[in-house]
Amino acid sequence: MYKFYCRTYQNILRLASYFVPWRKPKLIYGENSINQLPKLIKSKGVNNVLVVDLQWIVQREWEHV
Asked: Which one in 27, 44, 51, 65 has a CA-CA gap of 20 to 30 Å to 57?
């Protein structure tokens, strides 16, 4: 019975995720692109930032753009 509850909960969340307005991350790339971050962060009024700089993650993300 617990497994049924868990699967039902997962499916409801999966269905609800189609209606959530997900934001796309801003991809900044190129030489000295780190210098663009302060201006972008201030313009968006952001308090918390996740910066990804691992080469394999950046390469993988670039393939999907």
From this structure: 44
Q: Two tokens at 45?
A: 């009024």
Q: What is the tens place of the pLDDT at every residue in 25-35?
A: 777 777 888 88
CA distance 6 to 57: 31
pTM over 0.70? The answer is: no
Residue type, 65: V
25-61 per-position pLDDT tens digit = 777 777 888 888 888 888 988 888 877 777 766 566 5
Half-sphere exposure of 44 toward its Cβ, with a 13 Å CA cutoff?
A: 13
